[in-house]
Design goal:
The chain is built from 4 helices and no strands. The chain is mainly alpha-helical and 120 residues long. Helix 1 crosses helix 2.
């Protein structure tokens, strides 16, 4: 069996062209994959920020900011884990302490005593 040098040359040229086209296609798909992965990460982060801002709204945190302002502020954080933990630990609208001129035992009561006794 003998092979024609022209046929070998044509097959070789076609194989080279096919390999080049497939390499370009793979590079294009890798680029598209990277772009889509970045977009998904961005959308997931935005959803995480909005959920965190919703939690803050429900707990009355940063009440001086609107929801949109909270979202904008949270976007400035590279890592939201510390903010999440702080929001998670925050009590829902229950003041932890306050300053009062009334002193316990002198006719007034402190906020903790009032809360425990069901006054407020």
């Amino acid at each position: 069996m003998s092979f024609d040098p022209l046929q070998i040359s044509a097959v070789s040229a076609r194989a080279s062209r096919t390999i080049r086209e497939l390499s370009e296609k793979v590079a294009s798909l890798e680029s598209e994959n990277t772009q889509l992965t970045d977009k998904i990460a961005s959308l997931e982060r935005e959803k995480e920020i909005e959920l965190l801002a919703t939690d803050m709204e429900e707990k009355g945190l940063s009440a001086n900011l609107s929801f949109e302002e909270k979202v904008a502020h949270l976007r400035n954080y590279d890592d939201l884990n510390q903010v999440k933990e702080a929001v998670k630990l925050a009590a829902s609208g229950i003041p932890i302490a306050s300053v009062s001129e009334d002193t316990p035992g002198r006719g007034g009561s402190d906020p903790l005593t009032s809360f425990c006794l069901g006054g407020e």
